[in-house]
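Researcher: Following up on the earlier apo prediction. This time include the ligand. It's 2-acetamido-2-deoxy-beta-D-glucopyranose, with the SMILES given after the sequence.
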Amino acid sequence: MSFALPRRFKGLLPVFMYLSTLIAAQSCLNTSTAINGTAFPPLIEATTEDLVRGLESGLFTSVDLVQAYTARILEVNSSLHMVTQLNPDAISIAAQLDSQRARGNVFGPLHGIPILIKNNIATADGMDNTAGSYSLAGAKVPRDSTIAAKLRKAGAVILGKTNLSQWANYRSFNTSNGWSAIAGQTFGAYYPGQDPSGSSSGSGVSSSLGLALAALGTETDGSILSPSEVNNLVGIKPTVGLTARDLVIPISEHQDTIGPMARTVKDAAYLLAAIAGKSPYDNYTDAIPFDNIPDYVAACNFSALSGKRIGVPRNLLDLSHDSTAAPIVTAFNTALDVLRSAGAVIIDNTNFTGYDALNKGNYSNIVLEADFVSDLPKYLSQLSYNPNQVYNLDDVLNFTQTFPLEDWPERDTLVWESALELGFDNTSPEFWSNYTMNTYLAGPLGVTGALANYSLDALVLPTEFSPNFPALIGTPVVTVPLGAYPVDTKVKLNTFGNLNATAPNIPFGFSFLGPHFSEELLIGLAYAFEQRTLVRNSITPYIEPTVELVDVVNARLRRASV
Ligand SMILES: *[C@@H]1O[C@H](CO)[C@@H](O)[C@H](O)[C@H]1NC(C)=O
Ligand SMILES: *[C@@H]1O[C@H](CO)[C@@H](O)[C@H](O)[C@H]1NC(C)=O
Ligand SMILES: *[C@@H]1O[C@H](CO)[C@@H](O)[C@H](O)[C@H]1NC(C)=O
Ligand SMILES: *[C@@H]1O[C@H](CO)[C@@H](O)[C@H](O)[C@H]1NC(C)=O
Ligand SMILES: *[C@@H]1O[C@H](CO)[C@@H](O)[C@H](O)[C@H]1NC(C)=O
Ligand SMILES: *[C@@H]1O[C@H](CO)[C@@H](O)[C@H](O)[C@H]1NC(C)=O
Ligand SMILES: *[C@@H]1O[C@H](CO)[C@@H](O)[C@H](O)[C@H]1NC(C)=O
Ligand SMILES: *[C@@H]1O[C@H](CO)[C@@H](O)[C@H](O)[C@H]1NC(C)=O
Ligand SMILES: *[C@@H]1O[C@H](CO)[C@@H](O)[C@H](O)[C@H]1NC(C)=O
Ligand SMILES: *[C@@H]1O[C@H](CO)[C@@H](O)[C@H](O)[C@H]1NC(C)=O
Ligand SMILES: CC(=O)N[C@H]1CO[C@H](CO)[C@@H](O)[C@@H]1O
Ligand SMILES: CC(=O)N[C@H]1CO[C@H](CO)[C@@H](O)[C@@H]1O
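Model: Understood. Below is the ligand-bound prediction.
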């Protein structure tokens, strides 16, 4: 589920703006968004703790929140196409949660708080789960996915489904990030026509603009990290197995994972705490090594970087593949000083020795293709209603090539054709020899090897270069905003030719990598970095919704008084 297309073009000059943001961080005192005389931040900045405080003190209700976020979605949807579907039950769910709160029955910190989820995570309700394909329009699942069920159990309101790169970017060699047949082209909010990256494109755009508290994305190789980076967000790509994947449209059981995309590290931590854990429907979650999920929110500690040994796998910052990423590397190098001044020890050149062999080999393509051929039919076989009778990749391929709105052959289906030509699935010896090579090069000769050989706590990379090695072995990554392209950046198109892939003001990020199930550690490091830099607040979207909670609350009070 989720494969990020590489961004081929980059801008020209570095920018690293963390100093200027200390001023922007004051806007919690913004009086125009105060509610009944009580200060409240604009929704583009409101955190979990702000929302909890407002709900607890009766400043607003969960129904108010649903109405405010819905109004904001409708304000920008015709420009950005980031939300595929709104939950028709959201208001009644919020009303129920409000009355439960009134009776003292609060499920947790997310009680009554709206969250958007990517349109490949199934819910057994009035919403579709399509991965953006007409082949799955109207299809039904027998129950909620574990992830959706956990969100509901935590009291969150599932507000709607976000647009994505169709099939999580696993269909075509020549398409655009954030495009799906069902919901059209998603755009980023930091430049007109911005490539939103993918495949969790709509989740990234929605979370960044405050169209919900936060959103969930999915990742196979880069699909949380990359759209988090270009949409100015914190993204957590969890260890494969920390979050259950049942009833989530798959690419690869060995690489798929589900995680939060939020405006702050702490918000992302609250969301991860709600969705992490074992599930009888996904036995990869059996690998979770602890009985109780660690307290990810408590891990947000300003001193977390103190005394930590942090490695830089310098040979991955490979500008020969992507020379225009030079400005990102400059900003990254400057940011290493932030870690040093927070008490971390930086060990440079902790290189990943498997890098060249991995690039030359074809193991990762083969692993994903064989997994997809195996895992897609397992998902389809669980549908309780399958209106187009698609049961395997051949069926989906045929549907896509014969259904005009799928935009074939303009957007090709070569990824699938290549997978079908492979002629084996993930039970074959050929699969296992490729999987073994892949995980050896990315593990012992990559992430886990560097951690052990240099006695490191964690590794850091520009997010641009961070997804691939962790993707192949299923280890976690957390990305935090680092900067944005400067005003004089030359605008460059994506390869499909319909999006501005590099342009002024497009954000980029800084990634922390660690061993399997090290989310608690990485969240702490990311928080300590975020609190010292506060880059996000200094980068502003060119388009923003204007409805705030105060508008919804005042309208309600006016209605009540007539
Ligand atoms: C206060 O919030 C409003 C609405 O988000 C925004 O337009 C305005 O610029 C903010 N003012 C300050 C001083 O941040
Ligand atoms: C507004 O605030 C005042 C005092 O601060 C309080 O007495 C009143 O109940 C509040 N009104 C609403 C509708 O919450
Ligand atoms: C991309 O940016 C250029 C230059 O600012 C602008 O003219 C064009 O409209 C943008 N593309 C889209 C799809 O908005
Ligand atoms: C999960 O269960 C399947 C059979 O249902 C088995 O083939 C597979 O090895 C198990 N995987 C793990 C990681 O336990
Ligand atoms: C925060 O981290 C520091 C440094 O590791 C540690 O000494 C301190 O106890 C931590 N604080 C909390 C509240 O965990
Ligand atoms: C690590 O990689 C960098 C960049 O390719 C190179 O300059 C450096 O010599 C390498 N260091 C080691 C120890 O291999
Ligand atoms: C790599 O694998 C893909 C998919 O199986 C195939 O299309 C491609 O030709 C292979 N390339 C090489 C160099 O073997
Ligand atoms: C291919 O799809 C078309 C229309 O969607 C359908 O009529 C036809 O039977 C399908 N062919 C196969 C071989 O599945
Ligand atoms: C990988 O898969 C290919 C078939 O595409 C096979 O020829 C090869 O032996 C497999 N194993 C390795 C390690 O390349
Ligand atoms: C990709 O698609 C675009 C738009 O149809 C086309 O202009 C371009 O030539 C295609 N590129 C490749 C490499 O096929
Ligand atoms: C589905 C949906 O609600 N679409 C809305 C998108 O935004 C435009 C303009 O704001 C509305 O007219 C649509 O109804
Ligand atoms: C809810 C919403 O705004 N959905 C829109 C997503 O994008 C498609 C394609 O442009 C629109 O048709 C939907 O209305």
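Model: The longest strand covers residues 477-484.
Researcher: Noted. I'll compare it with the apo version next.
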